């Protein structure tokens, strides 16, 4: 009869391989995984370089909207101020897009390298953290992409009639990239609060008690991420961040309640008098 035994200890992808590897073996494995991640990143960057046109078309749509609204009153264009600025912009875009496209591969390499040192409980928490953080990050990027045209149109409204508005390509890309990145990271912050709760560092009640600080931080962040004159977008973004904060606090309090219930079940019953 053929039986399936435990995974081989020399299999680097096995979660049950010997944890007492030598330092040299760890370094060899780390180098192998870094090489795989680097190759995946380079391939993804090459692919991304050829799809920068549709991405550039999407992020420059607000400029075309401003140009249409101004009509013949003034020129509104994306400006490339040097000979190599067009190539530089596409290279920077391909790096950012390549990191996203290759994320499943390099995230898996990091995960496979770290997993053998984690307990089963820590692995479960890590999977839950990643499963929640990735969708929230992309949701934050989508929110930033949604509010970005309002910001561009509002800022363009301060350009005098008859004057031309030329947006430097590098500066404009930095503006869009930082906006999407900041809002995406802000959406992930509540997941870190839940992770701190699961690690026993902060209780759900302690997180909820910080709601005043959370409101101030959310409003300040939204005010920095959006132009001061766009009050509506500022409050919408701040409101979304507050909803995520209270959701994290409520989820943490639920975890605390379940943990307390398990502890009561584990404790032995008191002896009868």
Q: Quick summary of this structure?
A:
This is Sec-independent protein translocase protein TatC. Pfam families: TatC (PF00902). 73% of the residues lie in helices and 3% in strands.
Q: What form results from the Cα inertia axes? A: flat
What string gives the helices and strands in order? HHHEHHHEHHHH
Structural class: mainly alpha
Biggest β-sheet description: 2 strands, parallel
Q: Can you tell me the number of structural domains?
A: 1
- How much is the radius of gyration in Å? 25 Å
Could you tell me the number of beta strands?
A: 2
Beta content: under 5%
Unreliable residue stretches: 1-19
Number of helical stretches of at least 4 residues: 10
Q: Order of strands side by side in the largest beta sheet?
A: 1-2
Q: How far is the N terminus from the C terminus?
A: 59 Å
Please estimate the helix content: over 70%
- The overall pLDDT average reads 80
Give a structural overview.
The protein is mainly alpha-helical and 273 residues long. It has one domain. It is built from ten helices and two strands; from the N terminus they run αααβαααβαααα. Residues 1-19 have low confidence and may be disordered.
Layout of helices and strands:
Elements: H1 23-49, H2 52-59, H3 61-70, E1 76-79, H4 85-101, H5 103-114, H6 120-156, E2 165-168, H7 169-198, H8 204-209, H9 211-225, H10 231-266
Parallel strand pairs: 1-2
Helix pairs in contact: 1-4, 1-5, 3-6, 6-7, 7-10, 9-10
């Amino acid at each position: 009869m053929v039986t399936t035994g435990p995974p081989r200890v020399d299999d680097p992808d096995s979660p049950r391989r010997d944890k007492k590897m030598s330092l040299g073996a760890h370094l060899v494995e780390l180098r192998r995984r870094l090489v795989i991640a680097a190759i995946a990143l380079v391939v993804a960057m090459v692919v991304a370089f050829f799809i920068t046109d549709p991405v550039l078309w999407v992020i420059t749509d607000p400029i075309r909207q401003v140009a249409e609204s101004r009509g013949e009153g003034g020129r509104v264009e994306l400006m490339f101020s040097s000979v190599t600025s067009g190539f530089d912009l596409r290279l920077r875009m391909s790096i950012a897009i390549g990191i996203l496209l290759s994320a499943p591969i390099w995230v898996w390499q990091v995960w496979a390298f770290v997993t053998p040192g984690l307990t089963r409980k820590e692995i479960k928490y890590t999977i839950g953290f990643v499963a929640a953080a990735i969708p929230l990050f992309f949701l934050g990027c989508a929110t930033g992409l949604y509010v970005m045209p309002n910001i561009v149109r509002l800022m363009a409204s301060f350009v005098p009639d008859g004057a031309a508005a030329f947006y430097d390509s590098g500066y404009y890309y930095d503006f869009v990239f930082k906006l999407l990145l900041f809002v995406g990271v802000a959406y992930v912050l509540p997941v870190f609060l839940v992770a701190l709760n699961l690690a026993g560092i902060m209780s759900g009640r302690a997180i909820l008690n910080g709601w005043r600080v959370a409101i101030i931080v959310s409003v300040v962040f939204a005010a920095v991420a959006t132009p001061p004159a766009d009050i509506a977008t500022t409050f919408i973004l701040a409101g979304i961040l507050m909803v995520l904060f209270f959701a994290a606090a409520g989820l943490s309090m639920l975890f605390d309640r379940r943990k307390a219930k398990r502890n009561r079940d584990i404790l032995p019953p008191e002896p009868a008098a």
